[in-house]
Design goal:
The protein is 39% helix and 24% strand. By secondary structure, it is an alpha+beta fold. Strand 2 and strand 3 (44-46) form a beta hairpin.
Amino acid sequence: MSNKTKLKIGEFSQMMQVTVKTLRHYEQKGLLLPDEVDRWTGYRYYSIEQMQKLQSIRDLQSLGFSLDEIKDLYDDDSHTPSVRQMDEKIKETELQLNQLIARRNRLLEWKNSRKQITKMEKFNIQSLPEIIVASHREVIPNYEALGPMCYEKIGPEMQRLGCKCPKPGYCFTVEHNGEYTPTDIDIEYCEQVEEMGTDSAIIKFKKLPAIPKALCMKHIGPYEKFYESFIETFKYMEQNGYKIAGQPRTSYVDGPWNQDDPEQWVSVIQIPIE
């Protein structure tokens, strides 16, 4: 060992651009042991040959091999994956690739639908298709309680029931008070799901019929200001000779789950008309 170049762990770490923490992790795994450990000081020394081994480990990691798989290769003295192992890794990579492409496509759909809503005229008329929803009805103290109800109670229960929601996602509320009330709001939250599930104490599943014509108005701001948009919507209906033909829905596009500023929340009021 006396003729060999010995590098302290810090020097080896710096030259190979790898953290000391990573080198210690490799050592714990039995993957890259120091060439020498001084029994008096505990200092770890690495050799020049270990630079090449570290590079081989990195190369295998970049090809998707786990540290455990790499250790097995070194334990077998092969250092190189077999054709069968490479075929398995190719299959695994193709599966991950397909999953990533599917995720990208869903994200693009979601982004495009968000863009459409952002660009949407203040008023427009749409047909709403027949859908299956998971619904929850509750009397909440005020509109501020709507967010926590959704992500603290309804979200976890839908996850527990294994609900699958089509992207980009469609959720809305229907109020059952029969008249305006700022407190004790009897509200039903509905979220579109792919299929009927089994009802629980919190969630009920139902199929909602299509609405041939709905007047939609984009509302930007806190939920407490919905009344302003309703005033504007009904004035627009009156001016254009429309009549209400069903229960209004309030659909949520952007809200407290990913936007702290209530002034930036985006909702769409949907009123069935004839």
